[in-house]
Amino acid sequence: MSTAQAPTLAEHNNRKLLGTFLRTRRESLDPNRLGLPRMRHRRTPGLRREEVAQLADVGVTWYTWLEQGRDINASPKTLTAIATALQCNDVETQHLFFLAGHTLPSTRVAAACCKIAEHNQRMLDAIQLPAIIETPRFDILGYNQAWCGLMGVDLAEIAPEDRNCIWLAFTHPAWRKVMRDWDEVMPQMVAMFRGQMGEHLGDPHWESFLARLMNGSDEFAHTWQRYELGKVENRVKRFYHEETGELTLRQNNWWSASRNGDRLLVYVPDDAASAAALHKLMP
Question: Which candidate, 9, 75, 211, 227, has a CA 20 to 30 Å from the CA of 58?
Answer without folding.
Answer: 9
